[in-house]
Amino acid sequence: MSILIEASPSFENEWVDFQEEWKYEKEKAPYYLILGDFARHVKKLYELKEEELLNEIFRAVERLHTEGNSYVIEAATVGFLEALQNISATQKGRASVYEKYLLPETEFWWKKVNKFWETGEVMVDDRNGT
Question: Which of 41, 73, 117, 125 could serve as a FRET partner for 111 with CA atoms 20 to 30 Å apart?
């Protein structure tokens, strides 16, 4: 979360509140909830036309996908990208407004989320036969 907070400091209070709420269960804290909250935060920033900030946030998400371990990549994909698609899907194609911000690795996982919902294809990195 520190990478995301660095990209969007205005989300820090929500992160602090989450940590306080789950301070006794850090190992079992439902981080997908805070990532869903972050997705809603990003949606609001889009509605406010905060283009520069959105670019910064998606650079941070790209870092999560390129520098993170498998758990971080899964959280960035399922916790954030999928949540962003879901909360933006009130109108057909609405989630596609974020595609202009996607960098290569994040775009790969964005498409994996789409395929999962379209065909049930499992979200795995199959570029190297894994």
Answer: 41
